[in-house]
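Section 3.1 - Work completed
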Amino acid sequence: MEGIWFYWLAWIGWVILTFFWPKGKLRTVLTACLLILIITAHKNIDILQTEASIGFIFLFACNFVLIIHYSYMKLLYLFISTVIMSFSYVSFHLFKIYDPVWVMFHPSFMVAVLLTYLALLLVKNQKERYIIFLFGLCQGELLYGIIMDYFSFPVIFGALSFFDIAAIGLTCISCWNGFEKLSAAINQSIKKTNKRKAGI
């Protein structure tokens, strides 16, 4: 069932943000955005003889807000990274249509893991991983939809399967970022312990 992973993980994320994150502007913005996505993900509107999810349009707009303060050189690097991500997204889906035999697991999980790996490989900054993942995913969905529409295949920009990929990928990135923070904290604690023992 398309969308089940998105709704499940989105509500889990909303609960974590609401009850376990420290109060602040960031928490308010993130919880509001999650609620808007949950409400609008399945609602479509007609655009130029095609359909697009309101949630997809909202998510695409949020990406531009996130990058508005970056320098031109940083934007260039992020642009190149998102192009790599989007082409990977489109290539996977086109190969899935051409030769579906090699898709051994659920496609949403395979795409999410692929894009997560690319995000971790291309960017070290934890916040920027989210940005290039979402931007690459949205651009890839847009490009894939344009290709499908060109060949007269029925397409919805930002279907629930798209949000499944987004939710799974963001969860994977969050887990990896958490693992990095935990490793850094443990490493720092070990260093302090060793210094104390050495009398430094």
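Second construct:
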Amino acid sequence: MPTPRIDLRALIDERPFGRYQLLVTALCALIVFLDGFDTQAIGYVAPPSCTRWVSNEQRSVQSSRRVSSASRSAH
């Protein structure tokens, strides 16, 4: 006896859009929103942070140069 074929498109079209599908859709939309917000926030916060980071690195390089020059002059 052959197995009956199921028309998947018709089966999906006949079913109502239930609470579960609505919940999954809402959660996906929330994830996309939060991911976009994260990207926007990084674009806003990154330039001042990079400026501070570079200036701190420059300070540490300058202080290490002072220490190395002081140690050379001590010998």
